[in-house]
Structure formats: C-alpha cells, structure tokens
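Lecture 7 notes: from sequence to structure.

We start with a single chain of 193 residues. Read the sequence below before looking at the structure.
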Amino acid sequence: MSQSILSDERTNAALSWLSVAFLLFATVESFVTGEPLWGGFAAVVAAVALIPAVVRRSATTMPPPELVGLAALPAVVRSYGLYTQIAGYVAVAALALLIAVELDVFTEIEMTARFAVAFVVITTLAVAGGWTVARYFSDLYLGTNFFADIPDMMWDLVTAATVGVVAGVVFELYFRRFSPAATVTRDGREEFG
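Now the structure, written as tokens:
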C-alpha cells in the first residue's frame, strides 16, 4: 500500500507535509478563536500523520497525501467558517482511515479487507462517541452550545455511524485500487500489506 495516486515519493511527501501544515495552522487558529476541542482534534490528526516520519526518521515517509488531505480538510474548512455537521464526522472517519492505513503500511499488522472495513467503522464510532461526550461536557461546564437536546445528540451518533460505514467502503476500495501488495490467499481472503 505504499503507492498513492501520485507516483513520485517526494511529491507525495511534500503534499502530505502541506496538509500537516494546514492542520497545524487550524490548530493554532482554533485555540486563538476559542475552539479548544477543534484545536485538540486538529493537533491529534497532525500528530498521527507525522508518526511514520518520526518513527522512521525520514521526511519522505508519510501517509498518502490524498488521505492526509482528506483528514485535514474538515479542520481547515471549519477554520474558514464553512463547517457542517457531516464535515466533523468526515474528519473522524478520515482519522480512522489514517490510523488503519498507517497500521497496515508501516507496521507488521496485516488486515483482511473485511477486518479493515470493520476497523474503520468501529474506530469512527469510538472516536465519534468520545467526541460526543467531550462536546456534552463542554456544553455542561464550558457553556458551549453543541447540542440542543438529547435527540440532537443521538442523531449526531447516527450520522457518525453512517459516515463510518461509507468510510469503511472507501477504505476497501482505496486499498484495492492503490495497493500493489494486495493478495488473495488460498482460502479466498484478500490481504493487504
């Protein structure tokens, strides 16, 4: 899965670093404008994107730029005031995708296609659940107004689940298209890595 839509490794790395720079800008902007939850989220996405480069001590060892860009897009869009509820869950799903890709590409972990999809969906739901709890306590103790009522909170989780399933399907299609290392085992299972 080391390939990307683009074929040049340096170009891929440069585009990934550009997305990380946008994430760091969104982090600072969010803290300055009083949005600490979004600032923290953007910082986490930037840190996850940088893990391969830090661990391998190579500036060109980065996740695919289209994936880092997808993860950065909602945070950057939010900093320009164009945020929607779905963009937030796309950010969560993109973070789950980023984690899954990094585990598959940069570690010894091998994922079957079905497990990878389930991993992305469950990770998206787990992060969305934690994000919902954080926003609830922010409303309660910091005086923010993320949720109007309990049904609003529940629909948020339904939206997160839907986005998670779509992200899982995108993840599988992405691996099938851009993974030269995808193989089919004797028992018919597809493995990546």
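Residues 139 and 145 are 5 Å apart (CA to CA). Keep this in mind for problem set 3.
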